[in-house]
Amino acid sequence: MLFLYIENYVKKCVKGLVKKYGTSNMVDIVYTNKNLCIYFCELTEDVNGYYKYFSPKQQIMVINENLTEHNKQCALFHEYGHCLLKHKGKTFSNSISGTYTKEEYEADMVSAYMFIVHNSIDNERINEIVLPPRVMYLVCKFLK
User: Fold this and answer.
1) Each residue of 69-109: pLDDT tens digit?
2) DSSP 112-125
3) CATH 1.10.10.2910 at 2-143, yes or no
4) What phi and psi, each to the nearest 5 degrees, are found at residue 27?
């Protein structure tokens, strides 16, 4: 039941975002947001990206430039999910310790749904892509 509430909220947020900016191209959306800066740079292989909230007028997203195109999209959508959902605290996920917060799950949901919308993914095209397991699981849940 909880998934359906969050799923509907994420769908509403993403659809509103796409309608507001007239695009699902996240780079274009970020560049039109004066309060958010995006950087693509080399990060360690275990870090896809991160989001940092400083104030309502100052946030940054950093995306690992060494990722595959689909994984770069997922990281970009995920980090923007933190911004879209107004996450302000620590939102770091640690795959080694297994730490996975509510905010990380919500950002993964935004990433999964934005990926579907941006790439016109349906049940037939799902087998053409390789995504991080957490995001792929949510993409499949959205497509049910």
Assistant:
1) 989 999 999 999 999 998 886 555 544 445 678 889 999 99
2) HHHHHHHHT--TTT
3) yes
4) -65, -45
